[in-house]
Task: structure prediction
Amino acid sequence: MRVGGAAEWLLEPATPAELAAAWNAARERGHLPRVLGGGANTVVDEGILPGVVIATDRMRRVFRPAAGEDDLEARAPRAAIAHDDPARDPRLVAWCGASLPGLLRAARDLGYRGLEGLVGVPGNVGGGVAMNAGGRWGEMWDVVERVRVLAADGTLEDLERAACSPRYRDANLGGRVIVGAVLRFEPDARAAIEERMRVYLTEKRRVQPVTEWSAGCIFKNPDPELSEGRSAGKLVEDCGGKSLARGDAIVSPLHGNFIVNRGKASAADVFTLMEDLRDLVLEKAGLALEFEVKRWRA
Ligand code: EPU
Result:
């Protein structure tokens, strides 16, 4: 969204163990850290954000697990992994700071099907898993086999897919921090994967302002039974919300669920416009939309 200020304290761990250490150091000093992934779905206030932000940017590893080993830990690349047949074990281990577009490229290049539906989704693996990023062609948890999470008390824990109940846009892990994930794909022809990505991206570019400065969809889509099948974007459009603006923050003429920064918008402009839209849909359609975007207030 290109708005927002600075963090009072910014910690940049490079490994899962450092992430836990950063978390615990902040907790011991009385802070509840905020964890920042790619920031694609977060709108940050202006000024100095008090307290501790832990950025996962340096935790970018994506690797193929060796046979019998998928413990999410770093290890030196092995020739044996590079030369054996990827289709025999179509899994990847991704740490939270790996970029989603980079992960999709790695999966495509290996001939791994399963995440093409997330083409064009920005951000990192941690945020993508925590929020179960996705859309009509699939979602992140379609491929999650296991996650490593950091609990509020600073302990690391591995959770199998069967022990989790992810839902629409929410991993449903009670606020635990995603440290990394083991992802299971299906082998497929690279050309077929590439073609699906091309088709999805073309459709996305047609209906969403993908190259403009935004935080993606502002609201979660409502229960279709309550909204007569209308998405949040369609509801905003039907209620006349596409003409609303606050400063340089405008509602995208292309898609009613996107706020776009035309150049000099402030975080306050964006926050106010978000509330304007929520109030408008409540008043005109009687529906209380829920924000998908995370707001970090100073
Ligand atoms: N539409 C309108 N007017 C609008 C916006 C949309 O009529 O102002 C109609 C159009 O007919 C359009 C259709 O809605 O073709 C579908 O739009 P889109 O494909 O964008 O679907 P969506 O339900 O609005 C969801 C996800 C998106 C994801 C897309 C595609 C949510 C809140 N949004 O959007 O995810 O990219 O499906 O898979 O679930 C995000 O979460 O940040 C996000 C962008």
Remarks:
- The chain has three domains: 6-55, 62-71+81-192, 211-296.
- The pocket of EPU is lined by residues 135-137, 207-208, 216-217, 220-221, 231-234, 237, 255-257, 292 (CB under 6 Å).
- The first strand starts at residue 6 and ends at 11.
- Residues 77-81 have pLDDT under 50 and may be disordered.
